[in-house]
What we know:
Elements: H1 8-19, E1 26-29, E2 32-33, E3 36-37, E4 41-44, H2 51-55, E5 60-68, E6 75-82
Antiparallel strand pairs: 1-4, 2-3, 5-6
Amino acid sequence: MCKNTSNPRHFAYHHKNQEQGNPIGLIRLRVNFNDVKGDWFDLYMLQPEEVDGFIEGTGWSLERVKVAEDLANPMFGVILRNSG
């Protein structure tokens, strides 16, 4: 998710999500390849500080956050460990 954005379309999407009671990082999309269209699905693009709360009570724990800050739009990945 791009929380630090200056794109008006991103702001509009964030606002729409908030009005519907959804987190701003929730997006709805589908993949199209050539003439094949996949089903629509929800993708929750969390911020690093949201991961712990999201996985609480699931048996997973946050092991590490890896941030790629050298990109025009910084991105991150997480490593989770299943403690179950």
